[in-house]
Amino acid sequence: MIRPEFRRGRHRWSALPKLDTQEYIACCVGLAYFPELDGLVFANGGGGKGHVFLYREKTGKWEMLARDLPMGVYHNFAEYSPVHKVVIFGGGNGSKDLYKLDAEGKVSTLKKAPLGIGTMQTIVTLDPVSGDFLVFGKDGSFYVYDVTRDTWKLQEGKVPIFEPSRVKGNKVWHVTATPRRRERGFTSTNTRPTSTDSPRCHTY
Question: Which of 51, 62, 85, 175 sits between 20 and 30 A of 33, alpha carbons compared?
Answer without folding.
Answer: 175
